[in-house]
Design brief:
alpha+beta, two-stranded antiparallel ribbon, 12 helices, 50% helix
């Protein structure tokens, strides 16, 4: 075993794999941090991506994919054929990166990461075949989050280009979008964007349900919460037939005065 990747950060190791791999890559038993780093590195990668088969613990995948930012970028990679997710029934002792040319055992020691590499032909072939077989037997992980490309394109088409720009700017200002106190969730972000652009609740909730973000009922419940807290207001808009629809508007002066880079921070401070 040669430790020629020792002392690299995990993103460096992952980038070297994406640059060098010519065939399928098996990413086996990655940590939560490694999954997040892979999504980030692969999303920003400037080149042709190999097909990465990620075999991961189901609970770890669920925890990571609870972040809309990570999950929607992962969904983009899946739609491009660059990523597939299966779950492990029994995890190996180490985290592994396996290509048809080398095997890397990823070892964490505090803030240091070691990539212990072997390119022994026989060992690499046996390991690759082993995990190819385990991949075929493993269950697929059902990622329900829509690809971020679809979210942005449909938001621009169905609400407005300005709304899409606001949505993207808010996501870019956040480290996480979980709605657990560390970040706003995707429904709250969508409603704030709709209110900033004075869109109809019907339109934003229909868009959100159609694209796969959440149901209309979830949008309605979240709207009520935000309205009760004074973040957004609504006004009735008459229509020719049926009940009036509700136009969303920003309800708090602090939000009204904030630019996109500050909107998420101000909203979080009010919600918390």
């Amino acid at each position: 075993m040669a430790s020629n990747l020792l002392n690299h950060q995990i993103d460096d190791i992952l980038e070297s794999i994406l640059e060098d791999a010519s065939g399928d890559v098996y990413m086996v038993n990655p940590s939560r941090d490694a999954i997040e780093e892979f999504i980030s590195v692969a999303t920003a990668f400037d080149g042709s991506l190999p097909s990465v088969h990620m075999l991961a613990d189901e609970r770890t995948l669920k925890a990571v994919m609870d972040d809309f930012i990570v999950a929607s970028n992962a969904a983009d990679l899946i739609s491009e054929g660059a990523l597939a997710l299966h779950t492990l029934d029994e995890a190996p002792e180490n985290s592994l990166l396996v290509t048809d040319e080398r095997v890397i055992a990823v070892v964490h020691a505090g803030d240091r990461v070691g990539g212990l590499v072997t390119d022994d032909d026989s060992f690499v072939e046996d390991t690759y075949d082993t995990y190819a077989a385990r991949w075929e037997d493993a269950s697929a992980f059902n990622l329900r989050t829509p690809p971020i490309t679809d979210v942005r394109e449909t938001l621009a088409d169905e609400i407005s280009p300005d709304a899409e720009e606001d949505f993207t700017a808010i996501l870019n200002s956040l480290e996480t979008a979980r709605g657990d106190g560390d970040g706003l969730d995707e429904v709250t972000i969508s409603l704030l964007v709709a209110a900033k652009n004075e869109a109809l609740l019907y339109d934003i909730s229909k868009w959100g349900e159609d694209v796969g973000i959440a149901s209309k009922a979830t949008f309605s419940r979240t709207k009520t919460k935000l309205e009760d807290m004074g973040l957004i207001d609504t006004e009735k808009v008459p229509i020719d037939v049926g009940r009036p629809r509700l136009r969303l508007k920003i309800g708090d002066d602090r939000l009204r005065e904030a630019d996109n880079g500050q909107l998420a921070t101000v909203a979080q401070s009010i919600l918390n």
